[in-house]
Amino acid sequence: MFDFRIVERLHKIDEHIKKEDLKYHHKRVLVNKEFTFDAAHHLHCYEGKCKNLHGHTYKVIFGISGFVDEIGLVIDFGDIKQIWKEKIEIYLDHRYLNEMLPLMNTTAENMVVWIFEQMENALKNETNPAQDIRVEFVRLFETPTSYAEARREWMTNE
In this predicted model, what pLDDT tens digit does every residue of 70-107 receive, in sequence order? Predict the structure, then answer.
């Protein structure tokens, strides 16, 4: 009954399932998308290795929540990727961060807040208000074992 088998008939809209059945619930759901980028930076007023110009392969993870639309999607993963590519990554990937970002020390702690703000602004401008899509968190890994995180509750209540 649950063994591997070849599908004999592909479900078709309006024949096997109705459009009104595509949305299964009205609950908030969190989706995640991650990206990597390579960049160089150095830290000001810091006595340690990071005061020298150096680079990282960063990893950023977005946690985005919202209510599903009429076909059961919060947001298409491709739409998150498009926002990342067009609005955020262009300032980060293969760049000297001290030159590209607003005036700040380019710590992971400062950068993760900037990234959160960029994604939050893009989602407000480019998504359906009825879905209430919002950034819940952003994690920015500077190394495979070290990251900074910005969370919605910290960004809006402090």
Answer: 999 999 999 999 999 999 999 999 999 999 999 999 99
What are the tokens at 126?
Answer: 């480019």
* Residue 94 appears among annotated catalytic residues: yes
Catalytic residue among 16, 44, 54, 94: 94
Q: Are 86 and 121 in contact (CB under 8 A)?
A: no
Q: pLDDT tens, 129-143?
A: 889 999 999 999 999
Average pLDDT over residues 51-59: 97
Q: Looking at residue 4, what is its pLDDT?
A: 85
Q: In the annotation, is 142 catalytic? A: yes
Q: How far apart are CA 19 and CA 86, in angstroms?
A: 32
Question: Catalytic residue at 44?
Answer: no
